[in-house]
Structure formats: C-alpha cells, structure tokens
Fold this sequence. Notes:
The complex is a heterotetramer. Chain A has helices at 2-23, 27-47, 51-73, 89-108, 133-141, 146-167, 179-193. By secondary structure, chain A is mainly α.
Amino acid sequence: MYEFVAFYIFAIATTILFLITVMSKNVLYSMTSLAAGMVLISGLFFLLGADFLGVVQLIVYVGAIMALYAFAMMFFDATKDVKEKHGNSTLVFLLGGLMALVFVIMFSAPIIGENIQALYPVGLAENLGVSGNAQDVGLVLFTKYLVPFEVAALMLLVAMIAGIILAGKKMDYSLTECEASDEELQKEIKKEEA
Amino acid sequence: MEIGISHYLILSGILFSIGFVGVLRRKNLLMLFFATEIMLNAVNIAFAAIGNYYGDLSGQMFAFFIIAVAASEVAVGLGLLIILYKKYGSLDLDVISTMKG
Amino acid sequence: MDATHLPEVTAAGVIIKAVLILAVIAAIAGFGTYIERKILAFMQRRYGPQHVGPYGLLQLAADGIKLFTKEDIIPQHANKIIFAVAPVITAATAFIALAAVPVFPDFTIPFIDVYVPSIASDINVGILFVLGMMAAGLYGPLLAGMAQANKWGIIGSARTAIQFLSYEVVTGLSILAPIMMVGSLSFVDFNDYQADGTWLVVYQPVAFILFLIAGFAETNRTPFDLLEHEAEIISGYVTEYSGMRWGLFFIGEYANMITIGVIASVVFLGGYNDFWIFPGWLMIIGKIAFSFFFMLWVRAAWPHVRPDQLMWLCWKVLMPLAVINVVITGIVIMLVQ
Amino acid sequence: MENLVYIALFAPFVGSLFAGLFFARSPKTHLVGIVNSSLIGIAFIASVTLALHVAEHGAVHVTMMSWISAGDLSIPFGFLVDEVSVTMMLVVTLVSTIVHIYSTGYMNHDKAYNRFFAYLSAFVFSMMILVMSDNFAGLFIGWEGVGVCSWLLIGFWYHKEDKTFEENPSISPSWAANEAFIMNRVADLGMLVGIFLIYWNVGSLQYDVVFKALPHLADGLLVSIAIALFIGAMGKSAQFPLHTWLTDAMEGPTPVSALIHAATMVTAGVFLVIRANPLFSLDAVHGVSMFIASLGAFVAFYAASMALSARDIKRIVALSTLSQLGYMFAAAGLGAYWIALFHLAAHAFFKALLFLGAGNVMHAMDDELDIFKMGGMKKVMMGSYVYMGIASFALAGLPIMAGFYSKDAIIETAFNDGSFIIWAILVITAGMTAFYSFRQVFFTFHGEERYKALGFHPHDMYKYVLVAMAPLAALAISFGWFMDSFHEFITKNLPDYEMSHHTHDLAPFLGTLVIILALTGIFIAWKKYAGKGADAWKRDEEFEQSFVYKLVANQYYVPKFYDEFIVQPYTIASKKFWEIDKAVVDGFVDLIGKMFYKSGDVSRGMQTGSLSAYLNWMGVGALLLIVTAAITALIG
C-alpha cells in the first residue's frame, strides 16, 4: 500500500515535471522541474532499496549537476522565453509516442528471464558482519568495479580540467574564430595606416 | 496493488520517451542537455529496478557510473556551451549550421 | 542503544515527531532572531530590543505580525511561479534535512503510549541524506535570484551557486574522516561510537574545524554571508522579497543553522549520550545551543570576507587540508587495524 | 668445422651488407673493394680448409636453425658440405676472389663502385647458399637469389641507352637484365613444379631423405620430376631454347660476365643435375638423361657454330661458355657426373681467365667490343695476350692444358656409351672451338693494327690485376693434372664412371683425333686472321651475304623467332586483355565506387549542417533500434 502510493505519486509527479522540462518555453521552468524530477527519482531509488544510489542522486545530480546547469544559465538570459522554431511537431510527438508505446508493450509483456543469477547479490556485506546498502555498494564498488571506478574518477578529473579550460577562457578571446582575428588584423592595419 | 518491475520499467520507458521527444523537439542546446539528462535518469531507474528485482548490485553500479558520466558530460558540455554562446550569441541549433557537408 | 530494546516506531510517533520538529524549529527560528539581536547587542555593548514586552521578548511576536501583514510584492518581470516557489524550497529542504537528524532524544508520550523516536526517519545513509538535502536547499536562493529579474538577484544566486558548490566539497571531505572512523553513515552509529565519553573531536580536531568553517558557508552566515551582503549586492537573492516569502528564507536559514549544529554535535561532540550527571537530552540541547551561540559570536567578532578570499580559502586551504586529513586518517586506521 | 661452414657462407654476406648498408650512398671507397675482396678470400680459405677436412673425414652436415615449420612441413636451415658442394665452393670462392680483386681495378672509374661490390658479394652469398644447402628449398632460395643478383648486375649500367650494333640491335643493359630474369623465371616455374612434386610425394625436401625415397616412386612420376627439374636447370644454364639471355647478358660489366656467366651462375643447372644424380641415374628416367645428353651435344655444336661468325669479343666467349655447358650436360646426361663436375671446374678457371682477358682488352679499347676493329695488340698488352692464349689453348683442349683432360674425357664417355652421333658432334665441335677461340685471339692480338686507324690508345691493365689473374692461368694449365686425385676424391660421393677396355684401348687414338682437329682449326684461324700486310684479313662481303653466314650471325633467327612469335603476340594479347580488364574488372570496381559515390550524393541531402536535423535522424535510428529490440524480444 505504502509502496504503491509512493510509487504512483513519484511516477506521476516525475512524468509531469519532465514533461514540463521538455515542453516549457522557459528555461527556468525547465530547469526547476528537471531538478525537482531528479529529487523525486531519488525517492524512487529509496523505494527500490538503493539508499546509497538515492543519496548520490541527490548530491550529485541535484546538488552538483543541476546546480551547474543553473550556474551556466546565468551566462545566458534565463528569464527570457526560448525562441525555438518547432518544425514538424506532430512527427516528433508521433515518434516519441511510438517509442513510449513500444516500451510499454515491451515491458508489459512477461519478458523477464527467470534464469538469471545475481552476480553480486544484495547483502554481500552481511558476510562481513555489517549490513546496509551503503556497505554492499562499497564492497562491490571497491572489489569488482574498482578499475571502472578509478577510470570514472580519472574521467571526472579530466572533465573538470576540460571544463575549467573551456569556460575559463577570457571573454574577449575567441578560441575558434578566424574571422574575428582577421577583423582585428584589419583594424590594426588601418590604425597603422592612420 | 503490487508494484513489480514492470511498473518501474514502464515508467523508465515513458520518461525515456519524454527525453526522446525533448531531444527531437528542442532547438536550444541547454534544453537538449536537459532532455539528455532525462534520458539518463530514465535509464538509471531501469537499472536500479532490474537490480532490485534480481537482487543484484550490478544495476546500481551501472547507475553510479552513468551518474559519473553525466557529471563529466556536464563539466565539458557546459564549457562548450559557454564558448558557443560567446561565438554565436545564441544557443539555438539552427544558428549553428557550420557542419554542412 | 540496541534496536531490540526499543518500542516499535509507529506512524503516529513519526508524525508527532515531524510536527514537533516543524513547530519547535520554526519557533526557534523566530526566537533565534531575538536571541541573535540580543547577543549581538550585548557583544556590542548595547541593549538590543527591549521595548516590546519584558526584555523585548515580545519583539518576536511583533516581527511575526509585521511579516504576515506586509504586502506581498511580486515584481512585474519576475517569473512568478518560480519566484513564489523558491522560498518554499529553502524552508522545505531545511526541514526535510532535519527528518534524518536526531534532534531530541526519544521519549514516550505518557497516557496515549506513543513512542516518539529521536529521528523521524532513521535511514542508514543519514549523513549523506542531510548533506544531499542541504545541497538541494541551494535551489531556493538560486531560483529566487534567477526568477526576480534583478541583477542583484542574479549576482546573488551566482554567488550562491559558487559558494554552496565549493563548500559542499569541504563539508563532505571533512566529514569523511569521522565517517571512516565510525564506518557508518547513520547518526545513531555515530552517537553509539561516542557512548564511552570520548568525543570524536578529540580524534578529528582538523575535521571539526573544517566542518565548522564550511558550515558557516553553507548556512550563509558571517563571515561568509556574501549571498545577501548589503554593502555589495543590496540583499542578493532576497532583494525583491518581502513579507512571509522573505520570512521563509529566514526560517530556512535558521533551520539550516540548527541542522549544522546538530550534525556538529552528533558527529563531533558526543551526540545525545549522557554525560556525567547530565542526561542526554540536556546535553544535546546544550550542544546545539552552544553551536548556535557560537555562530552568533563569530558574526559579532569577524568581518566578512571578499568573494575571491572565499574561493581562495575553499580551494587552496580548506580542501587540501581536508584531503590531507582524510589521507592521514586512512593511513592511521590502516596501521591501527 | 661448423664455424668454417658459417664463415664460408656468411663472409660474402657480411661483405655485401658492409658495402650495401654503410657505403651505398657514399662515393667510391677503395676500402669497400679491399674489404669485400678479403672477405671473399676468407671464404675461399675456409672452403679450402673444409675441402681438406672433407677429403679426410667425409661430409660435414650442419643445421643452423629451424626455418620453416608449418604443419607437416619442416624445413631447417641446414647446410651440407660434401665432396660435390665443396668442389663447387672452391670453384666459386676462388673465381669470385679473383673477380673481386679484378673488379677493384676494372670498376675503378665507375661511380657506383660500392654498389657494384654490394651486388657482387650478395651474388656470391646466394651462390654459396645454392651450393651448400642440404635441401631443395634452400637450393631454390639460392637459385632465386642468384637470379636476382644477376638481374641487378646485368642491369648494373641500367642508365645506358639502347645500343645499335650490327649483330644484336637495340640491346641495353636493362633490357638484357629483364630478359635474363624473365627467361629464368619461366624455367624456375618448372623447377618449382619439380620441388612441389617431390614434397608432395616424399613429404620432405632434404636431399638424403628424398634420394632414399626415390626408387619407390612410380616411373611416370620420376620422369615428371626429372623433366621439371631439368627445365629449371635449362633456364639457369641457358640451354636451348632458353639460351638467348646468356649472350645478351654480356651487357653487364665484364667481371660480372666472368663471374656469373662463365664460372658460377650458369653452372648451377649442371650442379643441379649432378646434385640430383640419384634421380637422373635411375633407369626410369634414362630417356630424360639421354635427352639431356643429346641436348647438351646439340647446344655444344649450335653455340660453337654461332661463335664462328660472332664479332663481339664477349659474345664469342659467352657462346663458347654455352658450348662448354653443352659438353657438361652431355657428360651428365650420359651418367659421367664426376667428369661433368671436373669439366665444370676446369672450364670455370679458363673461362674466367678468358673473360677477364677479354675485359682487359675492352678496358684498353674503351669498351669497344668489335674484334674487327682490333688487331696486333700483343705488343701493348703482353700480359693479357699470354693469359688469353693460355685460356684459349685450354679451351681448345690442347695437351697438358686443363681443357684437354676434361673435354677429352667427355668425348671418350660419349664414345664409350655408344652414342656415336653425340660423339661425332662433340668431336667436330672441339675443332670448331679451337677455330673460333683462336680466331678471336688472332683477331685481337695479331694481324694489322686496325685500332690505330680508329684512334684508340690501348694500354694494359693494372699490374696487380694481372698478378691476381695468375692463379687462374696456373689452374687453366695445370688443373687437368689432378684428374686422378680428383677422381678419387669425388667418387666417394658421385657414382664412378669407368671406361670399357675397348674405349681405354682406343683412347690415345681418340685423343689424337681431337688434337688434330683442334690444331687444324687453330691453323686455319692462323692462316686467315693472323696475317699481316698482304696476308692481312679482309672482310669477305660476298660470304657475309650468304645464307649460312646470315643464319649463323643472326643466331639462327631464334631471337627473331621469339620476338615474332612470342613477344609480339603476347604484347597484342596483353593489350587486348588490358582492354578487357579495363572494361570488366575496372568497370566493376568503378561501379562499386560509383555506387558509394551515388549513395553519398543522394544521402548528402541529409547533411544539412543543421544539428537538429542530425539529431532527428539519430532519433529515428534509435527508434528503429528499439522497435527491432522489441520485436526480437516479443518473438524470441
């Protein structure tokens, strides 16, 4: 009962919020609803017994990623409505609807295999005398998934440096523009002539 | 009344489709990023649900790595967005059409 | 504190607890303004509020009436929905965070025999949950600033984003060392770890100091109150707010202060264990009260810093220190085992 | 002993690398000549030591390493030094050493001096592998290596223009090199088929294994193998009808001609037949052996007849080589393998001497080859004159000379075998040989000094070169004296060939006949060409117009035949095929290309440059994928 109610509240709210994200003309609405949706998804994770994942979702997705988006939005004018030319709207919705339909049909059918064995079953850490999702996750993450974990860490580091370098360029300096520099050059030439 | 794996998977599929519609529909790059995030989250739900159903932690692991990837994507992607904005003064995809073959 | 000896946690108990937290913290937030003004006044050798009621105690009620009756202004070009939602987010996240924090010791209401737990929801990743919720609290100022179509607001929310995102790192890293020692993310485990009377602050003084400093930044208190620094950016993200909406920000801020105080008390300062002749509930209230007082004390004693100093402090001093602390802790734990 | 084997084998290789790697681009370096000559000399000394060892203790068999090991096929890098191969090694290294030393003088003015030595040493190395290998695969490697090096060496002056010469119009070194290489490739195909047949039926390529297994094979198969191998030998030893490359190969530098086309490379075919004597002496392949002998006799006569009228000094020597190779094949075909090998060695010495002498003459005459323009040069070139005289005496088979013993033995063999036709041809050819070789000598060194009118100022070769040639001269004279000990030495490995008593009794008579014929030939030559003043030789224009003369002078029109009936039809066919190829194969390939081009052209419309369009396409793709997944999931 409790799970049922919670699931439906979360599911319906998430769907609506994400729909707002996708449909809204206003970036601020989109961002807010997306962030709220993320929070609700972390609620879904709690429902699924993945406490640690839920918290990570909160901290990383809501606390960091979306905040970064919000921060980046300040470079653009967020209060203005986004002007977009929506070409063939019906086609897009048709495709999206088709995809959703396919998913619904596919997942409604009893397609779940029974002969799958859990590689890293829940409750691994109980052998060590401790219990809890965080302990399980830690155990698996630092044994079986150690290398991917380290790689992910390295990737984050690289991404961070890349972000700093990309965004940290001086405002008046163009990374890629050739025309601009040409114009500057012309200006310089004119100055010298004068 | 029982909430099974199908519920979560269907929710995940619907959210994915919403993100998909967003990717197809939106022309603003920031919005595209948002739509991508939606899709990533939808997949995360599916992973967590399947992991829960089978009592396997691998599902959660994949979700973690997806979150890590999303974080790096944001770090780099936003940097690029800012550069694009500086260059074009807009984030509209239709403005960025220099990739013509 | 073995779980088996405890009475069953019922829905009624949790609800009572939630209402209790809401009521008490909201009241404290209001009362906190009075205390703050009084303490600051004393530290500045003046009286503070004293005209309304005895010792100015009813100033609180007067402020409340003023807030409730003030005209609710929404600027013309503001994004009205977001503008309205933003203060709620701040207050809501602050209280949600408190759901996983042991604010008072558990007790049983006599006569109706309802057990009220110390924590409304004892999830086993409590600390992370609190940090996550506080991180989510960032959206209040952020959205408020972006929604109000005011450049001070935008600057304020930009500062919010920078400050919160940066200091979250320090908070997390500084609290990581105690987490490593305890081996759990649950507040209850932290409390039990210190049941022998040795507070974690003895083992982790650096982490404690770092956490406190970061806590100031996270709660937007002086010396890190750059988000709404009047001399520079009017009022930052609250520039356009008035009335009850402003009040909600205010409540959220005070609730966050209490949360930080609770975390500091539970994680570093021995939790709600009995100490000498003092019972646990008194100890925890005393500790939280001291933390609260400490924040006011610092506000009275310190000037606020410049934004660049803030960033410098975070990334070049606190974060390296926190990392070193974590590494040393890890090495020591490894050697001891 | 093993080390000596490797020294003998790899010293030339080291020399080649030395010259090729370090000095290929630097200007002429005397060091290269000296080092390479000494390395070959070391190989020679090693070969001598090995020969002494073999004479005393028998064959040396070493396996350096496993080379090819795939499935059932296992071919080691093995080397066999027995009586046969050590004889060849001695001949090869000795002649090579002298040729190397000679080359330091002869090539003195050439710009590509270092390159020349790199090639020359590589050639010796290939020849050593050919000779020393203990299996057919190694033999084939050496065989091909020799082919490549001869290509490089014949075409050494590849930059030379086509030259119009009365006898062989428009031959350039590069053309000659290609001709030699292609001709050899054609023959090598036969050889390869033979090797494949051996491996297929025996399962090994090691000589000892193969020869042990041979008697158990079917007759038809043995004949096929023998024919296939002999085709290879025909190519390398320039037997009719694959002989034209040898005379044309004289376009290469003279030391090359001396080394390759007299002493070593062309003898590889003979060596193959001798090496494979257990095969060729089987009764089943008697017909093939008979054919070899007959072909040898024919080529001996055929080449000698062409040499009668040749005017090119080197061409005469080359034709005589061809003729002598015929003798060797005749002997080998008749089963007298040791005699063939003996003649091979003897011939190598005097023929190398002859070539080097011819080279001296050429050098003196500024690369002029036409003997009609020479004459009376013995005054200025005494040394060369003596050497060429000795060599010609040996070639003509006059008593006490090397050629006398070896050639006489072959003629006796033919007589002994009862093949009187072959015998008769060989005897007549012996007379012709004497005639044409002395025709050349008299033309060059006696008679009127025709060169003076043409403005040449001949001078003899460097002294040290002449001294270096002395061992060859000595061997040309004396090699025949060791016939008996050689017989004793070599028959440990090769089957003996005993003359019948009847033949033995007639031997002095037969020898005298040959000597008389040879002396007659020399006398005629003397009469015709050595005269001075009134007796001086004059061109007989009338005779030169006669059919016989023309036939002989034009090499029996064989090159012309090749040109008319093989080269030209082949060219026409190639052109036709090229057109077919262009239309069909190229067309097909182009069609594929065009298809992609067209499809790219069509799908180019998708590349609007607009990111959102790309995204839409990607979305459609994703949807397709998901639908596919759904369908598979629902069906499966």
